[in-house]
Amino acid sequence: MWLLPAQELGDVDQALDTALTYVNGVAIYALSHAERAAIHAVYQLYDALAGQPHADLTPAILNTARSPLYAAYDQVQIGGRLAKLRERILASTNQCPYCGFGEPRDLDHYLPRSAFGELAIYPRNLIPSCSPCNNAKRTVVPGLEPASGPSLIHAYFQELPNVEFLRADVTFEEGTLQVQYRVDGGGLDPVLTTKLQFQLDRLKLNDRYKGQINKFLSEQRAAMLMFREIDAVLFGEYLMRCANSLGESFGRNDWRPALLRALAANSDFCSSPADYLGT
Ligand SMILES: [Zn+2]
Q1: How far is the CA of 135 from the centre of ligand 1 (A)?
Q2: What is the Å distance from ligand 1's center to 181 Cα?
Q3: Domain-by-domain residue ranges, the chain?
Q4: What is the pTM of this model?
Q5: SS3 at position 55
Q6: What are phi and psi of 106, to 5 degrees?
Q7: Dist. CA 98 → ligand 1 center (Å)
Q8: Residue 110 alpha carbon to ligand 1 centre in Å
Q9: Beta pairing class for 126-129 and 176-183
């Protein structure tokens, strides 16, 4: 959850040519040498800016090419001339980096193509995401100034310190386990804390995790109760080991290890897990 390795760029010129040429070989739009060089420069600047918006990403020299590049994104759809690019990006992960559980079926433009048409087919501006996250994010349009408001973190470029920041608050109300996630800013830069919490809120992850948590705990139930029966004293330690193991697979700030850490620290849960896990 949260981060993915940046996409390989592949042959940028070939992708541009494919995008801007009809199947019969006729050019939709013939890029000049200067425009092609400007696109390369924009792509490099995008990486240097870690995907954050900047006026130099929309240079005047691309005013004419911007619209055909914007339209070229249609070729990244299923059946399009750049469908292989789509397949490659979607195949790079089996779960959406925004929520950590959804199946990636959409490509999210981190910087929206409406404002940054020249980045419409740039692989590092395309984040594999599930449809609910993509739809929820659609309304988040980063301004030209990074300071204009929080945006979501960039799955390819955001640097996250190696600390635990995702906390699950666990309570037991009216016969059911209630879990609320929040970002603990103790070891984080305050701007990053705001962004991460904004992401949790904007994507409505606390609501969307409810069904996932039920499913996850029902899968864990038999092993948990068996271990608790064998060794009640070390049950919390067992949960922490499970959390660490899941953290190695999904990242230590994934919702699953955060939940297990919270359960391990909850004495009521550890003394009688069967009461919380249902039948
Ligand atoms: Zn998602």
Answers
A1: 9
A2: 16
A3: 12-146, 166-277
A4: 0.91
A5: helix
A6: -115, 160
A7: 5
A8: 14
A9: unpaired
Given a contact cutoff of 8 angstroms between Cβ atoms, the answer to whether 31 and 68 are in contact is no
Q: What is the pLDDT of residues 198-246, one digit of tens each?
A: 999 999 999 999 999 999 999 999 999 999 999 999 999 999 999 999 9
The β-bridge partners of 167 are: 182
Amino acid, single-letter form, for residue 192: L
CA 186 to chain centre: 22
Residue in 42, 70, 44 with CA at minimum distance from that of residue 56: 42
Question: Which residue, among 50, 28, 249, has the nearest Cα to 257 in the 3D structure?
Answer: 249
Task: Determine the average pLDDT of the residues in 134-163.
Answer: 77
Are residues 247 and 268 in contact, defined by beta-carbon separation less than 8 angstroms? no
User: Residue 209 C-alpha to ligand 1 middle, in angstroms?
Assistant: 11
Q: How far is the CA of 95 from the centre of ligand 1 (A)?
A: 7
pLDDT in tens, 45-85: 999 999 999 999 999 999 999 999 999 998 888 888 889 99
